[in-house]
Amino acid sequence: MNRLSLSVCFALLSLFWLSFSPALAQSFSRARTLTEEFDLTASFSGRSDLTSRGVDAGDFAVASFGGGVRTFRPIASGGRGLVFGLEWTEHQLDASAAAALPDQLREVRAVLGLNYPIGERWSARAYIWPGLYGDFENVSARDFNAPALLLASYKVSPELIWSFGLRVDAFSDNPVIPIVGVRWAFAPAWTFNVGLPRTGLFYDVNERLAVRFGVSLHGGSYHVSDAVAPGLQRTLLDYREFRVGLGAAYRLGENLNLDLEVGSSLDRRFDYHERGVKLEGENAGFVSLGLNGKF
């Protein structure tokens, strides 16, 4: 089965799950709180040269696609509840023959989460994403990973919220990353947000349109099964690029939004950290398009 066929299968699987969710059958009742959500994304990063320790290592471009469906189930009053879902992400790497890169990197994962408000000011969240993270050439137990996020938030006021936590990923060169974030609505229509995967300045133009300028992290950590170069098989690969861009979110309907972002991808790199091989890419432009909604 080729990459396009697999992509279509994962997308159809997500849509099937969404369509037959028992809660969705009741979602057309206006009195019901919306607890189902979905998103679909596509992005493209331009071609740039790769170097390894200052030596030319080919060139590459990236097309990324993803989607997911999630549902919230209350377990008590006050916003306490569980989150369940399915998500899929893939990066198709259009690399030259000289580049030691796989054809694709893919994630197919479940979402399991707990939201737990504690009093009026504190709240806690715990999420885990068990699934397969790899090149999907020879799928095996080595592709299994379960990244997790633990986060506590403190509401100073309705306009100012601080967050503290840990991001855990056994496949990453940095398996435990501390997180400090803040959401500050410092003026009418203006919000400053620091966190992962996006940090930036947001402005609500009107009820339908919001614009932003910010930095986001794109990529992930994967198991590479096939040899992409001598000594580079059955190993782990960190792929990342920082994206600096201008974005806009437009409200198509009451619960449906379209998102567009353009900018530049910076600090692009592929790090085979278990083998001491790092490929660094030059800056390139990117464009991203997304659709998200609730039911």
What does this 3D model show about the protein?
This protein is mostly beta strands and 295 residues long. The protein has one domain (3-294). The chain has one helix at 3-19, and strands at residues 36-52, 55-74, 81-95, 104-118, 122-128, 131-134, 144-145, 148-157, 160-168, 176-187, 190-194, 198-204, 209-224, 235-253, 256-272, 277-281, 284-294. The chain is globular and about 55 Å long.
Describe the secondary-structure layout.
Elements: H1 3-19, E1 36-52, E2 55-74, E3 81-95, E4 104-118, E5 122-128, E6 131-134, E7 144-145, E8 148-157, E9 160-168, E10 176-187, E11 190-194, E12 198-204, E13 209-224, E14 235-253, E15 256-272, E16 277-281, E17 284-294
Antiparallel strand pairs: 1-2, 1-16, 1-17, 2-3, 3-4, 4-5, 4-6, 5-8, 6-7, 8-9, 9-10, 10-11, 11-12, 12-13, 13-14, 14-15, 15-16, 15-17
Any descriptors?
mainly beta, single chain, globular, 1 helix, 6% helix, 295 residues
The helix-strand sequence is HEEEEEEEEEEEEEEEEE
Rg (CA only): 20 Å
The number of helices is 1
Show unreliable segments.
Answer: 1-32
Taking the sheet with the most strands, its summary is: 17 strands, antiparallel
Number of spatially distinct domains: 1
Task: Give the proportion of residues in helices.
Answer: under 10%
- Relative strand content: over 45%
Spatial shape: globular
State the secondary-structure class: mainly beta
- Number of E strands: 17
Distance between the termini: 33 Å
